[in-house]
Write a structure and sequence with these properties.
Blueprint lengths: L2 H6 L25 E6 L3 E7 L5 E8 L8 H18 L7 E6 L2 E3 L4 E5 L4 E4 L1 H9 L3 E5 H12 L8 E6 L3 E7 L2 E3 L28 H4 L1 H12 L5 H10 L3 H24 L4 E5 L7 H14 L7 E4 L6 H13 L1
Parallel strand pairs: 1-4, 4-8, 9-12, 12-13
Antiparallel strand pairs: 1-2, 2-3, 5-6, 6-7, 9-10, 10-11
Length: about 325
């Protein structure tokens, strides 16, 4: 690579907002080479998957910023990343690309229906990406794609009927019914915005959404508002609760109660065999999983209690799902 090309190269993000470094991705197995992109509000994960299913050049780069609708700058950034990946690995020729994004997504129509942090409404992202990349593009919701990867490669692979729940800054979810994603036109799986109380007001405009109480971001925010002390994330609040801090204990207890209520509703209505939990809060281990199992069992009666299973693919589930979806086009 020349010095000019190196200077024009999109800079990598070393760690995500939670402080987690990008880990190596699990192989997706043999198949045709594909490009994969997992777009978030702050960064984009990109990779070129070879015929063995190995993620080549896996990297995290900033999501481009623009006023209002970020569609145009995003599509241009995807083109830049694709050129750089192919230049770094000239012997691997992709046959298709996978693109997954947050928000409300109509995968069949190829539309980003709505994403508040990216500014688009009914944006034809699939067709625009296909034109820019010169490849057929598989398009999906990021958490739905992550759930597909967990179903094929990770914690949900033993369960045809499951819920994948990602608890981080917010709470996102996806449903698998009979081994296939249930989408309802892109509106299914908004578990983080299921109401569990009359308040507080959520940034989405509704009241008492689960993620306003029980997301990792909410747990840290609520402790800061209650004490004036800025904790080192939700994990710090949980540690303070374990050490006997009464404010931290109340906040963590109410978060667990809210999660239990939401999981109980899912269990009663959908009856999943398993609920696979990922995201930053899943790293709380027994403090989360053991408590949720006990509280869920105590709350329900005749219902089939789902297995509560840690996600296995961590932050790479979305890009692995994008690669798997891209291969379905080939």
């Amino acid at each position: 690579m020349t010095s000019a090309e190196d200077a024009a190269r999109v800079a990598d993000v070393v760690r995500d907002p939670s402080g987690e470094a990008l880990a190596a991705a699990r192989t997706v197995g043999p198949g045709v080479p594909v490009l994969a992109f997992d777009v978030g509000g702050t960064d984009i994960k990109s990779a070129l998957f070879d015929a063995d299913g190995t993620a080549l050049g896996l990297r995290r780069t900033p999501t481009p910023v623009a006023d209002g609708d970020r569609t145009a700058v995003l599509i241009e950034r995807l083109g830049e990343l694709a050129v750089q990946l192919q230049a770094d690995h000239p012997d691997v020729i992709p046959c298709a690309a996978g693109l997954v994004v947050p928000g409300i997504v109509d995968a069949d129509a190829g539309l980003g229906v709505f994403a508040s942090n990216l500014g688009w409404k009914n944006s034809p992202l699939r067709d625009l990406a296909a034109a820019r990349l010169g490849l057929p593009v598989a398009f999906d919701h990021d958490v739905r794609a992550a759930s597909w990867a967990e179903h094929r490669l990770g914690g949900a692979r033993a369960y045809a009927n499951s819920v994948v729940l990602v608890i981080g800054t917010g709470i996102a979810g996806a449903l698998l019914v009979g081994g296939e994603p249930y989408t309802a036109g892109g509106y299914a799986g908004e578990i983080g915005h299921s109401p569990i109380a009359d308040g507080p007001v959520c940034p989405c405009g509704a009241r008492g959404c689960l993620e306003t109480v029980a997301s990792a971001g909410a747990i840290a925010r609520r402790y800061r508002e209650a004490t004036g002390i800025a904790p080192d994330g939700a994990k710090d609040v949980i540690a303070r609760a374990a050490a006997g801090d009464p404010v931290a204990s109340e906040i963590w207890d109410s978060a667990l109660d809210a999660l239990t209520l939401s999981l109980a509703q899912l269990t009663a209505v959908v009856a999943p065999e398993a609920i696979v939990i990922g995201g930053g809060l899943s790293r709380a281990g027994g403090a989360l999983f053991d408590e949720l199992r006990a509280r869920l069992t105590a709350r329900l009666s005749f219902h089939r209690i789902p297995a509560l299973v840690p996600a296995e693919l961590s932050g790479n589930a979305g890009i692995l799902g994008a690669a798997l979806r891209a291969r379905e086009l080939a």
